[in-house]
Amino acid sequence: MENSTNYWWPTYGPGSSRVMRHINRSLVFLVGVFLIAMGIAISVRADLGTAPIASLPTVLSFATPVSVGTYVMTLNLLFVGLQALVLRRRFKLFQLIQIPVTVAFGLLVDLCMHLTSWLNPSSYLEQWAWITVSVVSLALGVFIEVQPRLTYLPGDGIVFAIYTVLQNIPYGTVKIVVDTIMVTLAVIASWVLLDGLYGVREGTLFSALTVGLVIRVISRIAEQVRKPRTEN
To answer: What's this model's pTM, rounded to 2 decimal places?
Structure first.
């Protein structure tokens, strides 16, 4: 997969338990997923537009009694199915692990929505401050999520699946197209169900443009921290 993230993962001695390594990797992966969920929840509370991948679930949650996390879970399960359709024989059965990951992700989004229930920005400047926090949380979550090299969230998986089939198109371009489709569907749903534009605003564009940049910055910082240890 093409991305700007360099893997930064601790090495283990020959006596390390395989089970402990797997547990360690799984916990790190879950920390990353939690931070992504928190980033989504904060962006919803900031009310300045959510990240593209969460825009449609957010709009649908505004229009119905169903929670954001439930819609996130449903959408990501759909993405798993689409991966299988796109990749066909190249879809590895191991990637079905995305199904329980998706369930956990949806539950974490709802948990984070509960944890941020107090968040109610009182000014436009405060909304931007929280959107910035959301972007950092999303970027840090994505960076941590990929470190164990276990799997990925289905939203990233569908992009990778399409890129795998259409390798003449850059991964970044595929990502932009998928995000654009998600935002477009969110805008249509918002106008049809809510008679106005909700959940998709300037913060959505800001997230789309900056999350990748922040991931690169975090990756460079991690490499600088790791260098002295590697050289020793």
So the answer is: 0.84
